[in-house]
## 1
Amino acid sequence: MRAMVYRGPYKIRVEEKDRPKIEHPNDAIVKVTRAAICGSDLHLYHGVMTDLRVGHTFGHEFIGIVDEVGSSVQNLKVGDKVMVPFNIYCGTCFFCARGLFSNCHNVNANATAVGGIYGYSHTTGGYDGGQAEYVRVPFADVGPSIIPDDIDDEDALMLTDACSTGYFGAQLADIHEGDTVVVFGAGPVGLYAAKSSWLMGAGRVIVIDHLDYRLEKARTFAHAETYNFVEYDDIVMLMKKLTDNLGADRAIDAVGAEADGNLFMHITGVKLKLQGGSPIALNWAIDSVRKGGTISVMGAYGPVPNAVKYGDALNKGLTIRGNQAPVKRQWPRLMEHIRNGYLKPSDIITHRIPLDEIAEGYHMFSSKLDDCIKTVVVPPSAA
Amino acid sequence: MASIIEERPGGPGRGAYPAEKPTPRESSESLRARIPGWGADLDPADRPSFPREQPGIETGAHWTTPEDQPETYPRERSIEHAFLTPVFGTAQPPKGVSGVIRRYSYARHSEAKFAHWALLILADRVDSIESQFTSILQLRPDNPITETGILSEVRRHGLSSRYGRNRTDVKHLWLDPILIGGPYILAGWAVLRVVRGKRRRR
Ligand SMILES: NC(=O)c1ccc[n+]([C@@H]2O[C@H](COP(=O)([O-])OP(=O)(O)OC[C@H]3O[C@@H](n4cnc5c(N)ncnc54)[C@H](O)[C@@H]3O)[C@@H](O)[C@H]2O)c1
Ligand SMILES: [Zn+2]
Ligand SMILES: [Zn+2]
């Protein structure tokens, strides 16, 4: 089969690879019809994720057709069209039994501090991902769902990560009616988080980025008020001015480790990897919210320490929440919102490219060329 | 926006913060009329992620504990785990020098140790060098042009996407060649010094 493979930092190519096999009775093999590139994939592409082996196939956002099932699979059959959450999880461990699907303890041999994720290095379990023609899907009775007839494929694809993550992020921010919410980052996760903040009754939604074309999308897609941090000497000061010097009620970090905007943090965190990424957006969030406020961290950071302004967080009595999104828990409600016309996840897709051109797709998305927001990848067998 | 902070008689620059939440710029009614779905999830207790832990949640699993996936090679694992997890990824088993470093790091250090992660990052770099060599032997050398996707600079408007558009990353773009090429230049310089030193001694 054709599959994208990692060759080293900033280098990927498409190769012929063996089709994955059933390795456990509850496995399924899914023939991928559409995959997407996520901001998280950039942490791999830049070589920031740990235990990332040459030959690894990325891709944790995908939908497809069930091609083969293991002997114990009951809820799916060959031919079903499924959406697969980015989390790999068993359904019965201490964490899964309580709904913490992204924190499963039975699927990641390599680390206990993070659950299982498709195509996301050995630190999240060493599973190849879906930017390929076929993918092994463990616990097929637990993760995947059949795509309902009235849900578009591309909307379903966005629900496998980015859209569910943005929606989950807004929930972790604990938004109450009339709250002012500031979202750092106008990538897919930030855009969905901003949009979701309104669903939860926000009174004002502010989005911060340095890419004007994405801020434009934040205004049209997410009805947000936007600011380009490059135009302000001190973005925290601006947030204070906009909120009667109190600070915003809630903040959402939808940027994570690759944050830009502070050269020292960028060089030590992103370029030299002396920190687990640049925490500048998180620090801006800490300083921009009001005392007693809440910060929801959706942006991903590496496993080594970061220079986070924890003293400010403590003195301000902040609540800081984060997690990898337990994706499937969000689906029933998000599908309701889609059916009601409140949300059209696929509206943020800007590019559709063949799998064989994925190296250029990564460079484009990583360098934010051609007004790219979300790229969908089409395997040759599904074109 | 109507500010609730008023100038006080005490003179310019004096004020006091009141108890009220700042007046919203727009009422809930007007937001509901303007933004599709506004308030659809208004009740914090009626959101899919509340409460965070929901014992007994439906997952689709029809087992009490999952069956074990066969271990076909000695699978490295975090020493913070009591045992090998029932299911694990089998992509890219450790091999070569990078494999030795990886196995050592897993066997020796918990996830709490910086050394664990530093060794894994080192192994990643060793892995890419090892793979460069094997790919040359297999007559499929890495192609820096196609594999970096650099041609999208032309096809996807590299210049007009970057310049004159307020982007902050453009300001430190010049650093990239130094940070990427720097170590190679330093290593080359060091090799040259050693070679020259030896010649001089002869
Ligand atoms: N928690 C989860 O489950 C989960 C799931 C998906 C993605 N993520 C993470 O969410 C983050 C965003 O993902 P994405 O797909 O939207 O990525 P993206 O790269 O498309 O978007 C990130 C955006 O942040 C902007 N940015 C950079 N520095 C900034 C700063 N200092 N302030 C404000 N904005 C800044 C960038 O210009 C970009 O538009 C990533 O870190 C990703 O790993 C987490
Ligand atoms: Zn993702
Ligand atoms: Zn589990």
## 2
Amino acid sequence: MSTIAAAPEPSYIDVSYTLRSWLTTHDHKRIGLLYVVSITFFFFIAAVAAAIMRVELLTPAGDLLEADTYNKLFTVHGVVMVWFFLIPSIPATFGNFLLPLMIGARDVAFPRLNLASWYVYSLGGLFVIITLIAGGVDTGWTFYTPYTTMFSNTHVVAAICGVFIVGFSSIFTGLNFIVTVHRMRAPGLNWFRLPLFVWAQYATSLVMVLATPVLAMTLALVAIERILQVGIFDPALGGDPLLFQHLFWFYSHPAVYIMVLPAMGVVSEVIACFARRPVFGYRFMVYSLLGIAVVGFTVWGHHMFVSGQSMYAGMVFSLLSFLVAVPSSIKVFNWTATLYRGSVSFEAPMLYALGFIALFMMGGITGIWLAALAADVHLTDTYFVVAHFHYIMVGAAVMAYFSAIHFWWPKITGRLYPESWARLAAIVMFIGFNLAFFPQYIAGFLGMPRRYHAYPPEYEVLNILSSAGAAVLAVAYVLPLIYLGWSLLRGPRAGSSPWGATGLEWETTSPPPRDNFRRPPRVDGPPYAYDTERGHGP
Amino acid sequence: MSPAAGQNHSPGARQYVLTWVALLVLLLVAVGTAYIPLGVVNVGLNLGIAVVKALLVMVVFMHLGISRPVVRLAAVAGFFWLALLFILTLAEYVTR
Amino acid sequence: MAPDAVVPDAPQFEDGEQRRSAATLGMWVFLATEVLFFGVLFGGYAVIRLLNYDAFVVGSHHTDVVLGTVNTAVLLTSSLTMALAVRGAGLGQRRDTTRWLVLTLLLGLAFLGIKGVEYYQEYQDALVPVLAFRYQGPHAQGVLLFFYLYFVMTGLHALHLIIGVAVVGAMVVRNRRGHFGPEYYIPVELTGLYWHFVDVVWIFLYPLFYLVARV
Ligand SMILES: [Cu+2]
């Protein structure tokens, strides 16, 4: 049953249809959608790079690509996927769109800064495109010194400029979210009434704001050192290349949490909705989000176990890495406990969310292997590592991204999508992903090193399986484009709350008006007030 | 004291001038002690004085002394995270 | 007439107080990122000094401790005038505010001028990496790194100060046009926070470059 009746206010989309109105908007919802368009564009650039690599790896011989080209491909794939898709994926899109709605605010605290962040993102993206057109960069997304500073003959500085610039867009987003959550909450919405999605965005923002400047300055130092041939990473002068790794991973390990914490927020919302139960152990969920955000900063040395860092540091980093598994597993336990005795239904967002949990567990458990010093000596720089972080970053985080797309699609567009197609896509994505990456665990465990365009023939079967899985995965990524595009034009109208979900964002119309709420909302209870006895929505 | 009233309760000119005097005295102490051979203590003194000076600036001039807790938290967070970076990195270097 | 000193367009806020507290918090969060931004350089300094202590002693003896100390005093004084400017803005004393802001700006320029003199001396002494570096004494490579860090860190600090001077200049203009009053002086307040932060950075740069093992 729809409650919109005669809406006097136009929706945020209907305010104006001109391109100019989009490019100059201060509306957090429109900025979120600007980001959707941009990150989708970059996602496909990076995906094409991955596809070409998977074709090369169909045969053991390096017959399709030169080694140098292959190096450039995995660099582009990594740089673009990490900084231009995964980091902004959920925060800059759904975070922007939903955060003010979920806390009952009219907008974020600094709307102009918010728009600026998108332009900064686009400028960074421009540098990456320039890098690509000029001939690419071959250092790997990690930009390790001294290769970047002394040896690489590719466009390192241009690529670094792109990453440096895009970093500021995530700093701006994080800053905006922190202040928004602190200062813009609706009356009655105290901290422990916040939806977990908001908490997740908050924890993510902390990481963005405190880690990204370290990356920016470190990469700036690399660029300076490359240009001047003087710098602190040069061992010939008394510097230390390992210092770069310390600084880089101080950012880049927490960066994984920039990708996965928002995903956890999405999954918490979706699981509660489709299990019709409040999230089990809400406070523990909050503390574990914050715990991951903080402890995640102390584990970076696990990327350096075989780098020649001090043995004692290695032991400490190993222990701390085990420790960060604790809050992560609390989350998995609590999601599972939320499902227990819930009246669970399997709409597409739920399928994606369950896929997240499964893949996150696989990625997490193999992460524990990698945190173990002795095992890591064998597994470092093998496909085991590749599989591990793809399970977390592509499997889990992207599944959650798709879960969010489907869950909030009716709110964002005001339309419903075809449910059965969406379920099919979710299942195909899960199967395709596992087929693509599970064989890489085995190949890596057997010793296949990463970042080579050719490999010994005994790994051929595993690689063919993996490439086949990548093809299936590609289909699963294109499918939603088609049926969501159809929904955009032809989909049936959605009411304000098609899932019968709780949360302030469902109390306004779909799509919401420019200022989100006709009346400022008031909150007088905890989140996830699902009536367990009740059946499903309308 | 309501935060709005805080505007008019911001530290008086006298307190600012006293802080400034303290900062200059600390500066002189820092230069002076730098020329007295104290071994490792020199480094400790230099950095200790810098920390005190920075605290004075932040607490008085930047109003952390009369700010909301969340603002203080933001200020502390920056330095806390920096400490994580320093401690773990330097620990690695000194145990090599 | 000058526009009234009330809250201009910021419809996302309920009232001026919410706006002010959001702005202050936002600035502090930004400063926290700045702490980490500079922190990388300080961390790099610490590691390189640990690995090249003797060179750092030599390097530090080649910096101008007199000018450095004077400059520190200049910057600390500019923090006082800045604090007084913010106070004046909060009390609605427009003319005093202008005066303190201009003084702050001049002290900032004085700092940059003295820094420039120092840079020029170091250029003449051939202590500028890449551009002119002919130091041949003991620990030459470590000294090169010392001066590399010196120029990167004081350079980035100077860049921040130049931005600060520009912003203070803008505040002078806006204050004279009557944009601020006791009800609304957020920009002056935020400028003050930024200015003091730049001061804090220098407070740490000073002992690290000028006072290493002076005895
Ligand atoms: Cu890691």
